[in-house]
Each structure stands twice: as C-alpha cells, then as structure tokens.
Write a structure and sequence with these properties.
By secondary structure, the chain is α/β, with parallel strands linked by helices. It has helices spanning 39-46, 49-52, 65-74, 84-92, 138-149, 164-172, 186-195, 221-226, 228-247, 249-259, 265-279, 282-287, 294-308, and strands spanning 2-4, 15-18, 23-28, 55-60, 79-83, 98-103, 110-115, 130-134, 158-162, 178-182, 200-204, 215-220.
Length: 328
Amino acid sequence: MRVIRLTTAVALALISAHAAAADKLKLQLDWMPNGGDKAFVFVGVQEGFYAAEGLDVTILPGRGSSDTLTKIASGAADVGTGGIASLMMAQAEGGIPVKAIMSIYSKQPDAIYSWQGSGVTDMKSLKGKTLGIPTFSASNALLPIMLENNGVDPDSVKQIKADPGTLVPMLAQGRVDGVVVWSTNRPSIEATLTQVGKKPLELAWTDYGLDGYGLSFFASDKLIKEKPDVVARFVRASKKSIEFSLAHPDKAAADQKAMVPEADVAMLEADFNVTKPLINNEISQRDGLGQFDPTLLQHTWEWVAKSMKYPLDKVNPETLVDRSYLAK
C-alpha cells in the first residue's frame, strides 16, 4: 500500500492511501485534519483496517457538518463525519439524500469555556456576561434553549460571532467571558490560557441537561442503494479503527501524525483522550459502539426541533438512520 502525505496547507487537497484493486471511497471530514478528535480515520488507513476490507480511502478536509452533507449529497464524497443534528436540520429544511450509518459520539460535545476567576462558575452565572460564538455552528441554535432551561434569559447574555479560529485567542485576551466550542478543543484551550496565566473552566452542556447523539458517520443514499457491501465493509473497518484508537491513543496519534506531518503528536493524543468519553461511555457500553438507540435518537431530534422551532412531526428521525450495517 502506498501512502500519499500532504500538509494541511496544501491539504485542502487530500490525504489518501492507495491499494490495488480496492473499492475507492472519498471520506469527507467535517473539519481540518490537524485535530486529534478524529484520529480513528487515519488509524483506519495506517493500520490497514480499510485495506483489509478492500477499501481505498481518501480523506478530505472540510469546513463543518453542513459542508460534509453538501459534499456527500452532491457526490463529491461518498461517506463522511458530521453532527447528526445537522442531518436532521437538512432534512427538515427540504430533505437530503444522506443517511447516518454509525454513531460515533453517543454524548454531545457542546460546551462553554471560560477561566477560573472570570465570574463564570455555572450556567446561571452567565447572566450579564459576553460569549464568543462561532459564525456558523449548530451549537448557536441550542444556546438559547440551554440558557432558558437553566434559568437564564438568553437576552441577558451578549453574543459576539467570530471565526472559530479566533474564539480562543479572544478568550485569552479577556475580550469575552466565555466561548462556545466543542469539548474536543479542551487541550488547545488549556494550552492557550496557560500561556497567559489563566486556568480553564468548562461548562459541558451534558452536565446541564443536554443529551443525544453527536458526531456520526454518514453515507449517500446512492452508495447505500448501489453498493451496500461497500458500506458494510466501511462500517466494519471504521468500528475496528475506533476500537483500536480507544485502546491505543498514542498509536492513533502517531498514525495521524504520519499522514498530517505538521500536526503536533502530543496535542493529537491529548485531543483524542478528551474525545474518548464522548465515544466510550455508559450509553455505548449499554447499546454497543455505533448504535442508535431509538429513544436517544428521538431526544436528539427534540433538541433540534425546539432550537429551530420545527414542529415535532416535521421529521421522523428514524428515517435518517440505517442500522443495517451494525453488528447486532
């Protein structure tokens, strides 16, 4: 197997592994490949899990879950990673020929980060504070609901939209009291705040009532219909890749570093270690890695519907998942 390595500067191109006579798959990430939270896809290539299933996987960098869905729906990618809430919103807004084929995060990653001594101690303390929020993020729609559910008037919290890359520097500079980001960013937040003598404080939304599925693997309806065996092999290999990564986070980071040379291997490992509880927890242990529990799936939709003001019968979340490729 021959591996092509590209830096992320050039990697709005791609990262791929070639195997002779294998089925080719384009795997669209929901973000750039230099974060360790999705190290398992690189493990799938480097450890040969995809090749063993007869798959030649090309990994493409992305710019959010909506980007993943658009690329898969248009045929620019075959499979990909993204938040299932984005799939639900896309379906509610007119439909999309994409299905979720495997859960990755069985807990939501949304969080607010501040620093100790900022005056932020819990959700209720956000009243009168200023939050930096990403320009485009499903978390933005959930934020008012989270505040309301925790006794805070959303209008009492000032919000400043900014590019995701500038949020943590804004926090370090004290320009905002907190930032809305995924908990998978904790290592980089800690490193940045430590440089300015601040200790981070995390308000994980799961601690304040948020439940439901997060990151998932998607596949196009076209691929599912025309090549179900390819989808089955992809799910099988991806599951092995995730299990390997959970058991060997150091090796997972090294595998990603091999394909993304400019990434910091220590930070990649730290990123994946804080991601592990989103993947391996009491929910996935109860239901099985990758599974979609009907009740939790419905709760996920209810959060989306409430945040976007959709009627609950607008979407049946069961129509958005295909469990047939997961081991019983």
